[in-house]
Design goal:
single chain; alpha+beta; six-stranded antiparallel β-sheet; two-stranded antiparallel ribbon; 12 helices; 8 strands; 15% strand
Amino acid sequence: MTASCTGRRGAVTQVPTQHAVLADWVDHVVELSRSATGTFPRVTIADHLAETFGCHVSWNWADTDGRFGFELQSAIPGYADTADFGTWVVEAMRAHPLLVWFARTQDPAPMTVGRVPGELAPPRGGNYLKELLEPHGHEQQLSIPSHLGSRSYRAFVLAQGRDDFSDEQLDLARRLQPLLALLDRQAEVTSRVRLATCSPPADLTAREVAVLGLLAEGLTAAAIGRRLQVSPRTVHCHLGHVYRKLGVVDRMMAVTVARELGLVPAAAADPRADGPGLSGPSFEWPGPPVYGPEEAPADT
């Protein structure tokens, strides 16, 4: 179904209705789900979003261990590199209106910067966006989360200049979000199933692999014990065996080696571990955490 509109010179063009666009997306997601490999097809999705909305798209993420970053669909002339950002990037991200919104509401429905209530988001967050992105025409942003946890998220961020995204665009994004969440969850589950059916390398036992997987998700020994219904002392015993077998001395090194060996699910351990990312530059910072309930500061 299409709608007709008249161009500047009187030519009649056909513009797809939201129903047609949504139907196209459903078909697209069905095809992606049929070829599921345990990886999240963020490149294909970003390209399709850019075509649908006619704007720049980036893929943004924050992990439970405090790492965060983003990938650009294409290079932005004059845009800063990691060194140019400096240490203020952590504060800028902590005050980002959309991150504050998602951290406080835990509502995965897409949202735009311009619609975040002023009493909820620190004014400095908007100032950071204006300073960094307005010169490039990317200060208006629409975020579509594919995963939203209490301390982690993965989201596509659409960006344009001057005017906020329209109600129609936001409504379409909110209809698309469950489809993207489905693909994200499918990739995570498929990865876990594949891991469970593989023999663990490094001579680890099944229980040690389970402990290592929960460790990679950011859980403490006490939390791991509750999840596995064992005592924290038993968890520490398992971790001692894991450290010895992997040749490491602490949890951070253990998680790093586990990712390299494929001992933990890619979707849970590293949201970027699905091969090549978006074609533009990528940026990553080690932390401290920028996302979470208590990481949503308000100006006083």
